[in-house]
# Entry
Amino acid sequence: METMIEERWKLYKNGLSDAKISAIQNVTRSAIAQWRKRHSLKSNVPKISNGRQLAPMRHLLTELGWGKRAIAKSQNVSTTVIKDWRQRHGVKPHPGTRGMTEKQRHDQIQALQKRVVKAVGYGLPFDIAADAAAELMLAVIEGNVPINAIEEQGRRFGNQALQKFANAFTTKSLDNDLPGHDGLTLLDTLVDESSSIWLEQMGATIH
# Structure
């Protein structure tokens, strides 16, 4: 029977993303990302095969004020593709966006990520907060959460991540090693008292 690490290597070599590997192995995305970094492995980015899947990101970048050239470059398509997409869906570019520099666009994405992290909050254990922020950012990119609703949805995504984490350990001792975390225990991840109390109320036990 293969070990968790052997399975992880197999899943990675088969092209699975961090999200899919973490779901299969019931660990956090951060655990997979840290494992990749230790082995100098690049992320397996899911391949996007058609314009329908690219559309949510196009809407987001348009809302951020990116011009068709910048959007086309980010998606490795021609400006004609973006122009045709806009016409088909009645998407209008924001006025005065042509003067944006590449650095300004980069800063925009960073600012958006910071908004997401801040919306989730800093009271959760790091791994849980990171997972919640990743899920919220993905929801924004996919168009499921509008940019103007990030702050409103932050707590919900944080609670969902905490709930998922607690459910995975309701029958386990907090002293048990976390799978895929090189000896880290569940108790080690509880960096704030409120999270610890909440997990105990959910049924986790400390021996």
Residues 102-120 form the longest helix (19 residues). The chain has a mean pLDDT of 76.
